[in-house]
Batch of 2 targets.
Target 1
Amino acid sequence: MANLKEVRIRIASVNSTQQITKAMKLVSATKLRRAQNAIVQMRPYAQKLNGILANLADSIDVDSLKVYFNQRPVSNVLLVVITSDRGLCGSFNANVIKLANKLVKEDYAGKNVTILPVGKKAAEFFAKTNVGLINDFKDTFQQLNADNGFAIGEYVLNQFKAGKFDKVEVVYNQFKNAATQILVNEPFLPIVSAIGVQASKNDYIFEPSKEVILEELIPRILKTQIYKSLLDSFASEHGARMVAMDKATDNAGELIKALKLEYNRARQAAITTEISEIVGGAAALSGT
């Protein structure tokens, strides 16, 4: 059994840790509220744009836009892997990295796979592998906004149009609620006829012209998808961290209870020993 001083030190240490986890839980809860509002407001807009794109996919006759829809033999694959910059959020990052690593080693084995990490955790992991890396956007979450999100989309679109990649997929955690994140492997390019929504066959009237509008609209829709994925991941990160810190706080409380019980037992044992020694000493003196 540990002595009283050691147990007191452990109790003080766990108390300090519990205060830290409580503070981190409150910070994540505050950030989650803002991030949740952002993704909830963004989704209807993104879904409507995706519906328009799905509706137009079968009727694109503009040569400059067909590149986004044409299926071609897959030799070069780009995976946009979205994680967080920091840990202490449970299995949030590990699940994304595990899925991306599976895609590299199994689904696209034998292909030339390149990783575009968004978030330092993915960049740090894949830097230790032999996979090609594009590290230009790993610090995006330090200042997450539409411009930075669209910059990633612009880069991916340009690389795909230039023929450097034949297929692009996005791996991230989709936000459902504070306690639940859905791991997603989302095809990005080339565009298929339906992107997660049921396309309705509407007859659009284009003004000034179909070519001019679609030249602007299709890239914007694709960039919006990337930005929505970033917002989803950002909200998921803070939800996962809030839950992880809540559980850590509860576990610290249970550990403190166990340590206090151990401390009381050790203290009682010490008192009993002292009393026994006193009684033994008194009995020896009276015998003499």
Note: The beta strands are 76-82, 112-118, 132-133, 167-177, 180-189.
Target 2
Amino acid sequence: MPTRTAKRTRTQEGTGLRSLRLGLAQLAPRLGDVPANLDAHLELVEAGRGQRASLVLFPELSMSGYQLRDLVPDVALQGRSPEFVRLVAASRGLCIGFGFVEETADHRFYNSYAFCEDGRLVHVHRKVYLPTYGLFEEGRLYAAGEHIRAFDTHLGRMGAMLCEDLWHPSTMYILSQDGAQLVITASASPLRGADVGEEHSNIDVWETALKMYSQLFGCFMVLVNRVGFEDGLSFWGGSRVMAPGGRISFEAPLLQPGLFTCEIDWRELRRYRVSDPTHRSERLDLTLAELQRIQRERAESYAGRGGVAGLEDGA
């Protein structure tokens, strides 16, 4: 799917925007029903427009539902698909982010996230890390994405991740060093562990990760998570925004569908980065050199064992 990534020239400072009104769409998509999900998206986009939102974000695989299995080819969209075209067109006058199954020209399928503004496609992120353990089987269904890149919008420079991507710190590191000031994590996270409201559920783990990243990288962290029940799974919602430094600036209700709006003050990002020099003092040259060394040493170690890790000669 061709994407149009704007040149890295427009930042939120350049726009003169002091704030951003954000709409978090806690959707419960119908599994495998793309037309019904499109209608729900268009309705929520119009609701966001009515609430003067400049950005409306949907969860992971919001156009299809999550537990697809053999439905993946049936719900997949390409850039010319009528549903995709209609949703991109709906972004005239605002920005939209939504999740979908992408089919490429060579018929590979990706768990993807599209970002549109003013009636055009700006960026597509293909999920890089596909969970294939426990109740998850994405590695059997999708190809893995090969790029992690920030992108420019008229609202500011942003990055996008999909669920499991967040659990690999390198993903956030790359986006922050690529200039992202607001990072969207679209998720279809089911409740695991204790009941909602009790300790030690995965909700607490999500909040810890978002807080840590907002502190370390001085970014706005936005989680938009789906709700509803699907094939025995309960998705908890609880979408939220972390301001730079780890303050929860907005938290949507658990388990409740709807569009929830909040305001982001861009000046918070500047204040935090002025007071905390961590982001600007990062050593990319050192990081790159050490990663190349580790990669080289791993390859040499593997070759020295005859190509079979963990087995000595003659074993």
Note: Confidence is low (pLDDT under 50) at residues 4-11, 311-315.
